[in-house]
Write a structure and sequence with these properties.
By secondary structure, the chain is an alpha+beta fold. It folds into two domains: about 5-70, Alpha-Beta Plaits (2-Layer Sandwich); about 85-255, NADH Oxidase (3-Layer(aba) Sandwich), CATH 3.40.109. Helix content is about 40%, strand content about 15%. Helix 4 crosses helix 8 (about 195-215), helix 5 runs antiparallel to helix 7 (about 165-175) and helix 9 crosses helix 10.
C-alpha cells in the first residue's frame, strides 16, 4: 500500500503535488493520478508538502493524514506591519512576575514550536520543562560553584565576563542565571547525532518559534546562555537537569510573565549587506 492516498473523486490531476515534492518522488502518469513508486518510498522524508499544497484536499500522507492537517485560515493571516512589529518589539525579559505559567499554556507553546523547520524533517528536538521552584533555585545555587570554577580554571574568560563581580551579586540575589523566571525550557537531543550542527540549528529554530509564540500568550522569554554553558560543561548542573541518557542540551530559555511593559522599539545597528 502506498504511503499516499488519493481521493480520485476530488483529485483534478493538476500535478502540483508532484511539482512541489522536495524529493521529486511523486509522479503523475499520463492521464493518471499522483503516485509514489514502491521502490522510492524510502526516500520520502514525510514533510507533508504534498498534503499542504493540494488545492482540493485530495491527498493524504501516512505521516501527515488529511484529518490531522487543518486548513490554513485566510482570516488569520497577519499583515507585514504586524509581523514587523512582532519581530522588532520582541525583548529579552530579565524581570519576571512571581506568577506560575500553567502547564497547558507551556504545552501549547511547544506544540507551536514543533513546527519549526528541521534538517531533512528529522523532528528530533526534545523538550525538558522545569517549573518547580526548588529545582530552579537549585540551578541558581549550583551556579555559584560554576562561577568559582570558571574564575579558578579560566581566568582570562572570567575577567572578560566580569565573573568575580557577578559571583558577588549571585551570592546576594541568586538571580544571575534565571532572573526569577518561573519556567526553564531546555531543548535536547542525542549527543550521538551524526550532525550535531544540524541538531543545534534545529534547536535554535524551535526555541525561536517558541520565543515569538510566547508574545501572543502574554508571556516573555530570555535565552539562558549561562545555563546552556553549564548544562554542557558542569556536571553538578547536568545532574539537576537529568536529561535522558545519551542526550545533550542544545538550548535553554527562561519563560514567564513580564514584570514590566515595553513601550518603544530601541534602535539597532544598520545591517551590513553584501549584494551579488
Amino acid at each position: 500500500m502506498s504511503i499516499i492516498e488519493i481521493n480520485q473523486k476530488t483529485c483534478n490531476k493538476c500535478g502540483i503535488c508532484a511539482a512541489e515534492c522536495p524529493r521529486r518522488i511523486i509522479t503523475l502518469p499520463d492521464g493518471g493520478f499522483p503516485e509514489i513508486a514502491a521502490q522510492v518510498e524510502a526516500a520520502c522524508n514525510g514533510c507533508g508538502h504534498c498534503v499542504a499544497v493540494c488545492p482540493k484536499g485530495s491527498l493524504s500522507h501516512r505521516d501527515s493524514p488529511l484529518g490531522l492537517s487543518p486548513k490554513i485560515q485566510d482570516g488569520l493571516k497577519i499583515t507585514s506591519e504586524q509581523v514587523e512589529q512582532l519581530l522588532k518589539s520582541r525583548r529579552s525579559a530579565r524581570a519576571f512576575k512571581n506568577k506560575p505559567v500553567p502547564r497547558e499554556v507551556i504545552t501549547r507553546l511547544i506544540e507551536d514550536a514543533r513546527y519549526a523547520p528541521t534538517g531533512h524533517n528529522t523532528q528530533e528536538v526534545e523538550w525538558l520543562v522545569i517549573d518547580n521552584k526548588k529545582e530552579l533555585d537549585r540551578i541558581e545555587e549550583v551556579g555559584i560553584d560554576w562561577m568559582r570554577w570558571v574564575i579558578q580554571n579560566m581566568p582570562k574568560q572570567a575577567a572578560e565576563a566580569n565573573m568575580e563581580e557577578k559571583l558577588e551579586r549571585q551570592k546576594l540575589h541568586h538571580d544571575a542565571f534565571l532572573r526569577g523566571a518561573p519556567v526553564l525550557i531546555v531543548t535536547h537531543a542525542s549527543k550521538d547525532n551524526p550532525n550535531a550542527l544540524v541538531a543545534a540549528i534545529d534547536s535554535a529554530n524551535a526555541l525561536s518559534f517558541l520565543d515569538l509564540a510566547a508574545n501572543g500568550l502574554g508571556l516573555a522569554t530570555c535565552w539562558a546562555g549561562y545555563v546552556y554553558f553549564m548544562a554542557n560543561l558542569f556536571p553538578p548542573v547536568q545532574e539537576v537537569l537529568a536529561l535522558p541518557e545519551g542526550h545533550t542540551a542544545y538550548g535553554c530559555v527562561m519563560l514567564g510573565y513580564n514584570k514590566f511593559k515595553y513601550h518603544r522599539i530601541p534602535a539597532r545597528k544598520v545591517p551590513r549587506i553584501i549584494w551579488r
